[in-house]
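Q: Can I see a sequence and its folded structure?
A: Here is a first one.
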Amino acid sequence: MATTTYLSNPTVTVGAVDLSDQCKAATLTVGFDQLETTAFGDGGRKYTKGLQTVEVTLTLFNSYGATEVEATLYDICGDDAVTLVLSPSGTTESATNPEYTITGAFLASYTPINATVGELSEVEVTFVGGTWARDITP
């Protein structure tokens, strides 16, 4: 069985701000709503694809400044038209490094201050909704 491994080094852009250098973890889940199409006489349940679903969870090192994490999240909190761009390893799209663009994502809340003595401040945010597209062309 053929396998491909890579060292995680994703790129993460939120709005127009590249937060890759402040991102510790990124999880992208894409799919579709399942709509039931089972009719009388069917021997089992049947489904078809509905609307796209998407969820992006980011763990970011909290930083303050004009184009840093806190200011970026502050500007988009409650906005239902956020664009996110993620790729697993670098900025050049290819079959082995697909780029996902999420448009119309929503960030309901974030934690601007999360501090513990002797630890780096981190914030975890979850974006939901919108539509996603996968691109593998350089």
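Q: Show me another, different protein.
A: A second, unrelated one:
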Amino acid sequence: MNWYVCQDGRLTIISEYFDYNLIEYKFLDLWHDDPNGGGRNDISEELLTATNSGLIVSGYLFNDLLSWEPSRQRLLDFLNRDNILWVWTDSDGFWFLNEGKDNIIKIDELVPNNKMCFFIDGNPYQDHWCYRLKNIQILETKYHLTMKQIHRIFNAYTDKINATKDFMMTTINKPIPSKLHRQILWDELNNRPGLIDRGHAVFRKETDPWQGHTSEFHGWKGIYISSDFYLDSWLEIVPETFYQHGHVFTEKNLKPIITKTPFLIVSSKGYLDYLKSLGFQTFHTLIDESYDKQDKIEDRVRLLVDLLEDIIKNGSKSFYQASRDILEHNYSRSCEISGMWQHEMDLVIRRALDRINHD
């Protein structure tokens, strides 16, 4: 099979796998300049006649190809010539799946069976719409890219000794439906008199300056630890990426784990059980975690903030100290996963290739 990998920084994992395993492929740039200015992504001339070939694109590029009828049709023509499309994004593949729901459902009716595969870094609910797709395959990569990336801690120090804040909560205000839980959380925290002042609470726009000390090593500051906030807070409230559809483990929840910080999580229903399935421990022996089992996001947030107030009333420092064994276990488990990560990812790709050969 002839493989084409689009030139996109979001495909590093797959291109590195091909390089390491001596699988030949060709980098392809699908960008076409418009003589009148601008341009767009489209199926290239080389792909118009390709057969027995595989094309690998990111979620961004896939959505772009579907957004324009001519490129969408040329993509379908490509697949109907016994070719394969993989949609792979090194992180946030599950997010792209959900954001592209309408287009994916429509194109599922048109593509040949098992000629398109979506790789996702999350765990959809059992009733998720993706399981009703007839022709498109869904494969879970299980672990988010950040499981490999962010175990380095500024000054290598995590012990909290004289924290001045009961909690921290830092997130970006994105006024889109999939991030509704962040606004609900922020409103609930502010509705409790004096509570917001008990924490390092940041709800900023994407254009606002970053708050908290982070390393300048990487262009994406969000992947790094705000070390001063973590050392000065007894626990963290984590608004994860999703509050519906399913579960995904991202840098948002990994950061309290590797800084050995207790956490309360605003996410999809049952997220704490998902963490347990990955080998982590939660704090159910110390606190009431029934907030995570509520159907409505408003109820999950309300009960979580009730719990936060109870923890503060009973002593946030005491909760932190009582959590130490759990924190040590979770830190060790995160290091295990980080060490396994490359092998697990390689297995996902190998099995996908084997499935092609078997078919």
